[in-house]
């Protein structure tokens, strides 16, 4: 029986490794394929001869993208939205989650029911647009921040994490004369680094990838985020189903190379940031999800 279990366990390990390898290949393939086409010479791209490795080495697509002022403006706007939006979202999520994590909060269960209700039902696009317009947020940076300021789902995860912090720590803080504010700032938040980084990453990725709100609320092109700029560049290049586009920076660039170059430009920053907080990412999600 022991030998059979060892064999089955070894087979299970091999199957897991194989499955993970297939998943890694499936996730890496699109990025490698886009990078190969973006860096290849025009002729092999037009002939469809590029797969996972560049055929030749040509940086005209990336040069054309970065020489386009729209991309630089989009990067600047997106960084502003990400920094401002993530900071405000984390701040208000903390201010909402910490009181709700206290069992002695008056009407705490009622507030939680109202928060959960918003996860099931929403007012819809038109009422939301009318509210944003009535507050004068159209064509302002706050239109990208305030409408989606707090996610009920992330707030509940953060609340659950706060509930898992030992009560004895807070009681010791009260004995030392700390107020509720100081307990949150000096005891709770320093212990909540995993969940703060995890939720912060979720908020940052959501804001970085958000182009729908910009299409609805922003008419001024100087306020458009990077994703909208990339969308506009790709759509201009696709006019008339042309194979070659000279619409970016005055350069003649193969459309496929242009599309994949701008997609990579918009995706890589988030992929670069993720490894630095990966260890906190897994811990924060698990702790905030499995506790009652």
TrEMBL record:
Record carries keyword Transmembrane helix: yes
Subcellular location: Cell membrane
Keywords: Cell membrane, Membrane, Transmembrane, Transmembrane helix, Transport
Domain ABC transmembrane type-1, chain residue ranges per copy: 75-277
GO biological process, one term: transmembrane transport
Cellular component, GO annotation: plasma membrane
UniProt cross-references to InterPro entries, sorted A to Z: MetI-like, MetI-like_sf
Pfam families: BPD_transp_1 (PF00528)
Residue ranges crossing the lipid bilayer per the database entry: 12-32, 79-98, 110-129, 141-162, 195-218, 258-277
Bilayer disposition of the protein: Multi-pass membrane protein
Gene3D superfamilies: MetI-like (1.10.3720.10)
Coiled coil: none
Top-rank taxon, per record: Bacteria
Signal peptide bounds: none
Family the entry assigns: Belongs to the binding-protein-dependent transport system permease family.
Protein's UniProt name: Putative aldouronate transport system permease protein
